[in-house]
Amino acid sequence: MTTPQTTLLITVTGRDRPGVTSRLFAILAGYPLTVMDIEQVVIRGRLVLAGVSALAADLGLEAEITTGTDRPGSSSSSAESARRGRLHVTVLGSPLVPAAITAIAGRIAASGANIDRISRLAQRPVTCIELDVSGGNPAVLRADLARAAAEQGVDVAVQRGGLHRRAMRLIVMDVDSTLIQDEVIDLLAARAGCAAEVAKVTESAMRGDLDFASSLRERVALLAGLEAGVLDEVRGELRLTAGARTLIGTLGGLGYKFGIVSGGFVQVIEPLAAELGIGYVAANVLEIAAGKLTGRLSGPVIDRAGKADALRRFAADAGVPLSQTVAIGDGANDLDMIAAAGLGVAFNAKPVVRDAADTSLSVPYLDAVLYLLGISSEEVAAAAAIAGPLGCRAGVRLTVSTASHLSETCLYKRQTRRILFAYRITFARYEKLRGPSTETPRTRLYGVSPTPAQR
Questions:
Q1: Is residue 60 part of a domain?
Q2: How many domains does the chain have?
């Protein structure tokens, strides 16, 4: 049986001004805490905020500290659906510690911007919070926060406020190491007995000695004579990235369209796209004769420029402007499409891609993209519980702990309706009071997770 964790709910009230969040978390960073939840609302410049007595006195605020327990499946708040502010700053961490929030909030305050509201989008296995910020320059703030994020080991995204994110209607993803965990060419090479040779060509391309098209042709040539039936076998071995079904099912249920672009091969990924309900596919075609691979490609190579062209074709066919597209990738081949899309996301990507993208994700969960669109894990869970077709399409299950979480969330909203400015923070493992923790770390997911058969 899981032992309940001691938690602290810290509430501070008073007049709002820039720097309060940074000061609060600077104090808390001195303690071995994990941020479990955080929420802030500004109305008429008033604030109910939590911290320690010394901080409250220093800022001329009143403080209240409440202890409690955190049991599996429970939580005492939820992000409300309403969002306001000129910019959305999304912060993801696993775990998310006070020092990271200190750094992010400090950079925001230093830029002259103000945090108007903070809400939580996800709690486990990744903690994600969203800050509504006013008075900031998006380009400057994005650069400043990117540096802070790298220093703190978290992910940060800065986007325009309002309904801009909800206007995204087309998601286009790379396949190898993005939609799936594998590299298809490596799986084929292993079956053909030329894995070492293919690896050498890949390494040469990464050094810049060969361009992508030349390196791909060299690697495909090594597959000559491989039985075409092996393509079906490799297709059966593909492992979806965690959260892929949740991302596609959730957004598909909301009317989003999906496309995949790959330097891999149509014969392997097209059936996967059909299974997932992905409407657009662009990839290379392996030439087959007499039931065997010839070692040649048929048609043009889908390279860096080809991926960007595919994004534009998909958008035109779907009737979606490029400003309402999202491109997700991990390699240099994805740079052009990431630059062309309305939102470019580097997913566990190489440094050059992270630097070029609008935002990056370093967590191994593809459904974290939902948080960048302002969709919380609780909203995903509620949709899966209410809309049967969405749950089936997403291939997800709603855990019992999620149901309890949603119930308690509704209660919290009713209780806090009267507060002018609410800033709610919950911490786990407050070892300063309890002493070293002896309990086994928990791995339960809050929200929606793939079923074991789909992992």
A1: yes
A2: 2
Q: Are residues 176 and 160 in the same domain?
A: no
* pLDDT tier, 228 (very low <50, low <70, confident <90, very high otherwise): very high
Is-contact 346 156, C-beta < 8 A?
no
Residues 412 and 340 in one domain: no
Q: Is the pLDDT of residue 365 over 70?
A: yes
Inform me whether the pLDDT recorded for 52 exceeds 80. Answer: no
Active site residue 232: no
97 part of a folded domain: yes
> What CATH number did the domain enclosing 84 receive?
3.30.70.260
Beta-strand (E) ranges in 291-422?
A: 292-298, 325-329, 343-347, 359-361, 396-398
Phi, psi at 64, each rounded to 5°: -140, 135
- 144, 174, 303, 309: which is the annotated catalytic residue? 174
Q: Is 182 a catalytic residue?
A: no
The separation between CA 246 and the C-alpha centre of its own chain, rounded to angstroms, equals 12
Q: Which of 182, 183, 238, 194 is nearest to 218 (CA)?
A: 194
Q: Please check whether residues 268 and 322 belong to one and the same domain.
A: yes
Token readout for 277 is 């309900």
Mind listing the pLDDT tens digit for each residue in 433-443? 333 333 333 22
- Which tens digits make up the pLDDT trace of 279-318? 999 999 999 999 999 999 999 999 999 999 999 999 999 9
Write down the pLDDT at residue 166.
67
The domain boundary residue, chosen from 356, 371, 386: 371
Among 280, 364, 282, residue whose Cα is nearest residue 330: 364
pTM value is 0.71
| Tens-place pLDDT, residues 400-424 | 222 222 222 222 232 332 223 333 4
Mean pLDDT of the chain: 77
Q: Is residue 385 part of a domain?
A: no
Residues 359, 294 share a domain: yes
388 burial (CB, 10 Å; 0-12 / 13-18 / 19+) is exposed
Residues with Cβ within 8 Å of 162's Cβ and at least 6 positions away in sequence, in order, are 83
Which CATH number covers residue 322? 3.40.50.1000
Domain that holds residue 98: 5-164+397-454
- List the catalytic residue out of 176, 330, 334, 367: 176
In this structure, the answer to whether residues 246 and 282 fall within a common structural domain is yes
